[in-house]
Amino acid sequence: MPHLVAALYRFTPLPDADALRAPLQGLCEAQGLTGTLLIAREGINGTVAGSQEGIAAFLAELREGPLLGGRLEGLECKLSWAQAPPFRRMKVKLKPEIVTFDAGATDPTGDVGTRVAPEDWNALLGRPDVLVIDTRNAFEVGLGTFAGAVDPRLRRFSDFRDYADGLDPVARPAVALFCTGGIRCEKAGAYLRARGFPEVHLLRGGILKYLETVPEAESRWRGDCFVFDGRIALGHGLDERPDHPPEALR
Predict the structure, then answer these.
(1) Which residues form the Rhodanese domain (predicted)?
(2) Does CATH number 3.40.50.2300 belong to domain 3-94?
(3) Res. 242: pLDDT tops 50
């Protein structure tokens, strides 16, 4: 039986994150989900898999149920299919940050830059004055990236701070950032804006949304996109069941 995979995140204040871990674990187990969820005072991030009904119930609770009380409105979520189970078990973890960067010094709920829709991304890539930066680590970049993008050769995402500190916002005022699903770009964008970069663009929904949205014939993407589950990497279209796109849950 194919498994529906939901990759999701949302930066939003969750001061009660420690009290949410057990109820979220119970919710996922009750719906038969597997995967990993990270929760912190700054929000939620993770990838889970299960039946279409189980994922639907899980997303409905996050977005509209009493557990989060509407705090995950605007939850970013990408859906795709996996033929084999992509995870072995379900884990909900309490963390200092939902994506490790600088121990919470950068606020991704404020000014992160301008989010660019996937269908408008190619036009931005065509601007010669824009520095396009891949914010993922070097292994991920090695599997695939956008033509013409800069690879900062990061070992881990937190290394982006050192790379950004070496950039001059006067010499390179226009910057475009991308990552797998969008979460790393929001922190990187907030960091650049705080350092005085006047024009920062983020690929909304990340590479996954671009590969899902933009026809392969028009794509500027080269290679595959690493994903954090048993499928390892995905190409254009994302879904292993393209005849049954999970559009009803988006």
Answers:
(1) 126-219
(2) no
(3) no
